[in-house]
């Protein structure tokens, strides 16, 4: 029993240390509704980062900085892995711009919005999955993600902004859900390897002028 209690205490201490460690790295501010916004990072050389659900008992709901020139993690060129909190509701503009070592990111089901150019220039990003809670992709969100090969768009997505996937030169196919109501201009600009677009006949007629001329169009298949 003593041995088990010791092991449990050690495990709780390790968990506490994991939750406390980011507090020395992160900049944050408390919001009027008793929540927390992550607004910056003190050490841009960090390679891995864990963002807890709570800071000082307050839920972390957003990543945002009013200074777009120095977005929250903008220019963290060594950042390879980041754990986002399950409580996260919004990612502001330019937040991960230029995080050129980031390979994959899991976006939580709580996420409702991603700002413009949020992942621009994440040139090592290979794949990501957009949650059902996300209704729109803003302007330039994944622009210049030159290694992006796989992106899953949910069946609740309604809008894709201008240049959202511009210069995603490794993207060779994409499924566009029937829920789409708007596709901006130059969404797939310079996506020179995009060969297959899965889209309904109705949306093809509506958005045909938005696609690369080299792409082949296929109706979505459901198992």
Shape designation? elongated
* CATH topological fold name: Leucine-rich repeat, LRR (right-handed beta-alpha superhelix)
C-alpha termini separation: 52 Å
| Biggest sheet features | 6 strands, mixed
Number of structural domains: 1
CATH class: Alpha Beta
Global structural class: alpha/beta
Question: Could you state the order of secondary-structure elements as H and E?
Answer: HEEEEEEEEEEEEEEEEHE
CATH architecture: Alpha-Beta Horseshoe
Find the count of extended strands (DSSP E, 2+ residues): 17
CATH homologous superfamily identity? Ribonuclease Inhibitor
Helix content: 10-25%
Average pLDDT reading: 89
Radius of gyration: 20 Å
Draw up the topology in text:
Blueprint: H1 2-20, E1 26-30, E2 36-41, E3 48-50, E4 54-55, E5 58-63, E6 81-83, E7 90-91, E8 104-106, E9 113-114, E10 127-129, E11 136-137, E12 150-152, E13 159-160, E14 173-175, E15 182-183, E16 196-198, H2 201-207, E17 216-218
Parallel strand pairs: 2-5, 3-6, 5-7, 7-9, 8-10, 10-12, 11-13, 13-15, 14-16, 16-17
Antiparallel strand pairs: 1-2, 4-5
Quick structural summary:
This protein has 223 residues and is α/β, with parallel strands linked by helices. The protein is built from two helices and 17 strands.
Q: Can you offer a commentary on this structure?
A:
This protein is 12% helix and 24% strand. The chain has 223 residues and is α/β, with parallel strands linked by helices. The protein has one domain (2-218): Ribonuclease Inhibitor (Leucine-rich repeat, LRR (right-handed beta-alpha superhelix), Alpha-Beta Horseshoe), CATH 3.80.10.10. Strands 1, 2, 4, 5, 7 and 9 form a six-stranded mixed sheet that branches. Strands 8-10-12 form a three-stranded parallel sheet, with no helix packed on it. It has a three-stranded parallel sheet with strand order 11-13-15, with no helix packed on it. A hairpin with a 5-residue loop joins strand 1 and strand 2 (36-41). The chain is elongated and about 60 Å long. The model has no long low-confidence stretch (mean pLDDT 89).
């Amino acid at each position: 029993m003593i041995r088990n209690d010791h092991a449990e205490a050690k495990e709780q201490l390790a968990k506490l240390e994991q939750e406390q460690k980011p507090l020395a790295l992160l900049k944050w501010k408390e919001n009027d509704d008793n929540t927390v916004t992550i607004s910056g990072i003190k050490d841009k050389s960090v390679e891995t980062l864990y963002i807890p659900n709570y800071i000082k008992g307050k839920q972390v709901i957003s990543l945002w900085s009013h200074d777009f020139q120095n977005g929250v993690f903008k220019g963290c060129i060594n950042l390879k892995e980041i754990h986002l909190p399950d409580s996260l509701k919004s990612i502001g503009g330019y937040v991960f711009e230029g995080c050129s070592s980031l390979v994959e990111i899991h976006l939580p089901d709580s996420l409702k919005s991603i700002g413009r150019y949020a992942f621009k220039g994440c040139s090592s990003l290979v794949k990501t999955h957009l949650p059902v809670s996300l209704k729109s992709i803003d302007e330039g969100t994944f622009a210049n993600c030159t290694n992006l090969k796989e992106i899953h768009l949910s069946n609740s997505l309604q809008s894709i902004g201008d240049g959202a996937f511009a210069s995603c030169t490794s993207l060779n196919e994409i499924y566009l859900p029937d829920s789409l109501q708007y596709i901006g201009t130059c969404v797939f600009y310079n996506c020179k390897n995009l060969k297959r677009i899965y889209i309904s006949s109705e949306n093809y007629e509506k958005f045909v002028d938005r696609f690369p001329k080299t792409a082949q169009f296929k109706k979505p298949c459901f198992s």
